[in-house]
Amino acid sequence: MTSTTVTERDLLIRAREFLSDESRWVKGEWYMGDVSAPSACCLVGALERAAMSAPRDVFLEAEARLEELVNTPSESDDWIELFEWNDDPKRTHAEVLALLDRAIGESYGT
């Protein structure tokens, strides 16, 4: 029996693949539909969906990478939680995908 290690990069790619269809991205809700097989998710929900079979620390690493990206550089001293960033009324689907693309690029080898 072989063991497959799930990486931070794997989770980011899975979340990006799920959210690539704009109808699967939502604001103000973590999940739409059944939590075990949601029809749509916010950015954090998509990351959690991608991490269902992964160790919790891998999820936390991926989430931390995304939060660091949305908070650097910050115009404010206030830390922005990832769900707050996703739910910003001005936030676009393209920005969410661009953030995931950037995180995937930076996670190469992790």
User: What is the gyration radius calculated from CA atoms?
Assistant: 14 Å
Q: How many H/I helical runs?
A: 5
Low-confidence spans: pLDDT under 50, at least 5 residues?
none
Quote the beta fraction. Answer: under 5%
Q: What is the structural class?
A: mainly alpha
Global morphology: globular
The main sheet comes to: 2 strands, antiparallel
How many domain units? 1
Termini separation comes to 24 Å
Oligomer: single chain
Mean pLDDT over the residues = 89
Structural key phrases:
110 residues; 5 helices; globular
Condensed summary:
The protein has 110 residues and is mainly alpha-helical. It has helices at 8-19, 43-50, 56-70, 82-87, 93-106, and strands at 31-32, 40-41. It starts with 7 loop residues before the first helix and ends with a helix.
Molecular structure report:
The protein is mostly helical and about 110 residues long. The chain has one domain (about 10-105). Helices cover about 50% and strands about 5% of the residues. The protein is built from 5 helices and 2 strands. A two-stranded antiparallel sheet has the order 1-2. Helix 1 crosses helix 2 (about 45-50) and helix 1 packs antiparallel against helix 5 (about 95-105). The radius of gyration is 14 Å and the shape is globular.
